[in-house]
Amino acid sequence: MIKKFIIIIFIFIPIKVLALIEVDITRGNLNPLPLAVSPLSIDETSRKNFEQILDKENIGSEISLIVENNLRTSGLFNPLDKKAFLQAPDIANLKPRFEDWNLIKAQALITGKVNFINDKLRVEFRLWDVLAAKEMMALAFTTVPTNWRRVGHIISDKVYERLTGEKGYFDTRIIYVAEEGPKTQRIKKLAIMDQDGANNKFLTLGNELVLTPRFNPASQMVTYLSYFKNMPRVYLLDIETGTQEVVGDFPGMTFAPRFSPDGKKIIMSFAKDGKSDIYTMNLETRLVERITNHPSIDTSPSYSPDGKYITFNSDRSGYQQIYVMKNDGSDVKRISFGNGLYGTPVWSPRGDLIAFTKLHKGKFYIGVMRTDGTGERLLTENYYQEAPSWSPNGRVLIFYRETKTNSKGEGFSAKLWSIDLTGYNERLIKTETDASDPSWSSLLSN
Amino acid sequence: MKSSSIVISSALHISLVILTALSLPFLSKKPIDLPPIVSVELIQITEETNIPFAPKAKKIIEKVKEKEKKLVSEQAPPKKVKKSKTKTVVSEKKNKKIEKQNPEAVPLPEKEVKKIKTKEEKKQNPEKVDNEVKQVSEFEKKDLFDPNNIAALIDKSKEETAEIVKTNNDVTQDQVRNIENSKLSLSEEDALKAQIFGCWSIPLGLPYDENLLVRIKLKLKPDGSVTKTEILDHARMNKPGQGFYKVLAESALRAVRLCQPLRVPASGYERWKELQLNFDAREMLGG
After folding, report:
1. Which residue of A134, A192, B45, B126 has the smallest Cβ count within 10 Å?
2. A239-251 pLDDT, tens per residue?
């Protein structure tokens, strides 16, 4: 009896002694993380060399400005005002005085150094955890001086990935249709720019109507649609080399060619035998394969990132809705069931969501839903907006919006906008001309 | 012989497996989800009631009331006096005892006050329960009803509890400590949570279909500042495909550092000098 009692005591007493008070923290704030981007330090000779080559007074400050701007536009970071910084850039890069950075409430600090070595630009940067008083990351890049903007974007991506846990999207480009002139005589040119609107270039002259350019998720190749002698023609354009080729002429109305995730096929819809169906074309063999065969109008196909499924919109239920099917056209399931019409579905590169345009009661919405159709969230609403395209990390959507240019409702202007998945961080992307049909590239530095 | 028995055995086994595979799903299926049957008794309403015990009850009530009038009018005031007397006596006794027994052993006067309070609460509770019992017994257990006895019982219980408290003083201290050890009070926990909620910037890029729980063990100073932090699932950081875990753990550590000194309870340092915070980002990111 006594033995049993002792055993029981020995069993229970240690548990009570070891019992640690546990507190569950299930909520946090989604406020942007305050961080300090110290200007990259530069010695006087390097500064002068870069000033001669790039016509920039202080390339170190310019690069840090790019980083700062990128992180701010992501909506996840709050870069602090440089005027509040207490430590000089060169000393901060050697050994930050964390108390000073803590004082201005910075939780992370970016420092760095720029050098001119053998006619090349060498940039090193460090990311510091101010609260833990330790270095989180240190990297160096060497490139031709004209690539200085890309260095800024790459640093932004590295910082973004280290602090958020997902890949960044700053070292990317956006291809879009630049529009000029009145609506009846619109000149449409293919244009490309960095994701922040810099380095804008026109790729076509505007003689032919261009539509729906789309990036290959696996390379810097673009497919787009152009009308040649009133016939729709699908083109392939290599951004790196500038070479362009015709994939094929297609009958009737052809829409929105898009790459498969491996870049080996394009998927599109065109009208044949009096009905519009979805087809794929193998870019190596140029073989065309019919995927859907239904009397309804099936358009806007988009592959899932694993290539196993295709989402598209169809009016087979009587109204335009979003459907998902296997890549061979079997097992078609409707996934949108809300009020209104749904179109332009695009599968997220993360694979978890499908972005779409919704028309309901005269208003256009850009929204996302899970791939089974649940969890529909409308991110932004306006009188006319469509064609969402995902950033390569699946966090931000770019789309175009048409607005009236004056209060009387006359004229119109089309611009590119971006919005993140929270729906709060909506931004206008400045373009020289009006713009539509944007498509986001994959990361250039991959 | 052997082979035939194996064949028979395997055939029986296979048939058993097939049988279970076929029959079990049907068994698990509920036939039709019918709502439970609610039985209703239809009662005719007449002018006179036909409930048999009502007159008896009436009489009992009347009798009790009469008794009460007498007893309560005579005995109630002394009862109260008695209670208050006993209370004061007991509390005085206790105070004396405490003063006698533990003038040096208990350094913190606050703890003494607490102990006294808890003892008093314990005494008050049986009183309340007795009152309730009294009211019920007035109607149904006429024979058992005796206010004098109850008063005596109350007095006894008071004395007994007081005695227990006196005699087993050390045991009760341990018990109280153990109860306190188990967790923070709701308000204490809420204060700490609210503070950390404000400090924790959740990394938004985390994959929300993964396990996003980080457990951090803290060692604290009495003022709430953190002397040591330890990630309990540290091994997970180096596992393939768990790169996000490092980002999450770092964000949790940042939250702790940013928040310190933590809003810890003013007393009972022993109880919370080590604390475990379970940071779970799933609720915030999963929506």
Report:
1. B45
2. 888 888 888 777 6
Last residue of a domain, one of B124, B157, B181: B181
User: Using CA atoms, how far apart are residues A191 and A201, in angstroms rounded to an integer?
Assistant: 6
Residues of B in contact with A33 (CB under 8 A): 201
Q: Tell whether B213 and B151 lie within a shared domain.
A: no
In chain B, which residues have their Cβ closer than 8 Å to the Cβ of A24?
193, 278, 280
Give me the residues paired with residue A141 across strands: A123
Report yes or no: A392 and A346 within 8 Å, Cβ to Cβ. Answer: no
Identify the closest residue of chain A to B180 by CA–CA distance. A21
**pLDDT given for residue A37 in this prediction:** 95
pLDDT at A313 over 90: yes
Pick from A39-48, A84-93, B203-212: least confident: B203-212
pLDDT for B57 equals: 55
Which of A18, A27, A71, A393 to mutate against chain B (most B CBs within 10 Å)?
A27
Burial class (CB in 10 A: 0-12, 13-18, 19+), A101: buried
Q: Domains in chain A and their CATH numbers? A: 33-164 (3.40.50.10070), 173-440 (2.120.10.30)
Strand, helix or coil for residue A292:
coil
Interface of A with B (CB under 8 A): 16, 19-31, 33, 76, 107, 129, 131-132, 136, 160-166, 352, 393, 395, 422
* Closest chain B residue by Cα to residue A161: B205
User: What is the residue range of B123's domain?
Assistant: 54-181
Residue A202 has pLDDT above 70, yes or no: yes
Q: Is the pLDDT of residue B34 over 90?
A: no
pTM: 0.70
What's at B130, amino acid-wise? D
Instruction: Please give, rounded to a whole number of angstroms, the shortest distance from the CA of A141 to a CA of chain B.
Output: 23
The DSSP secondary structure of B216-243, one letter per residue, reads: EEEEE-TTS-EEEEEETTGGGGGSTT-H
CA atoms within 13 A on the CB side of B189: 15
CB atoms B203 and A29 under 8 Å: no
- Render pLDDT for B231-278 as a digit per residue (tens, 0 to 9): 988 888 888 777 788 889 989 999 999 888 888 888 888 888 888 999
Q: In A, which residues are within 8 Å of B214 by CB distance?
A: none
